[in-house]
Design brief:
The protein is an alpha+beta fold. It contains 5 helices and 7 strands; from the N terminus they run E-E-E-E-H-H-H-E-E-E-H-H. Helix 3 packs across helix 4. The longest helix has about 35 residues.
């Protein structure tokens, strides 16, 4: 694959994608080869495991709350996410997460995520915002972190989606 390492950070080629699927509780039901390779886990360690096995401590919980609210409501979402590997390295992704709907029953049955290499500009903007949100979260919980995000979006006069997509 096209993975490079610089210190503790892993990067992957912008022309390849990390793909996974989960059930309704966020347990991994599918992981493509790039996902397996970059995560450092074996396929059998990932399948059935909660997707948050990759959650990096630098990620604000408010972002995951937003992600879950969107996809559980049947909506798609884009987000920048910092993941942690089995060996405690990290990698950033620009994630696109969608609900999986059973076409026969029209019921939500899981989630599909396609992640690509994020833009350098996006990380330069997102990383300090996430750090500010994380600091607020440590002091005042998810609501304080969410207030930072909402205030930032309000100052920029953009929606969350427009903000994230502006750094593709």
């Amino acid at each position: 694959m096209s993975i490079t390492q610089k210190g503790d950070e892993l990067r992957f080629n912008e022309n390849i994608f990390i793909v996974s699927k989960t059930d309704l509780k966020g347990r991994i039901t599918y992981a493509n080869d790039l996902f397996i390779e970059i995560s450092g886990f074996k396929e059998h360690e990932l399948l059935g495991a909660p997707h948050n096995i990759l959650r990096h401590p630098d990620m604000p919980k408010a972002i995951f709350k937003l992600l879950w609210e969107r996809v559980q409501a049947g909506n798609e979402i884009f987000a920048y996410v910092k993941n942690r590997t089995k060996n405690n390295c990290y990698y950033w992704v620009h994630a696109y997460i969608t609900p999986i709907i059973d076409t026969k029953t029209n019921q939500l049955i899981g989630y599909h995520s396609v992640r690509r290499s994020p833009s350098t500009k996006g990380i330069e903007v997102i990383e300090p915002l996430y750090q500010k949100m994380l600091n607020a979260e440590k002091q005042g919980g998810i609501s304080a972190s969410n207030a930072i995000l909402k205030n930032t979006l309000s100052q920029l006069k953009v929606s969350y989606d427009a903000f994230i997509l502006s750094y593709e």
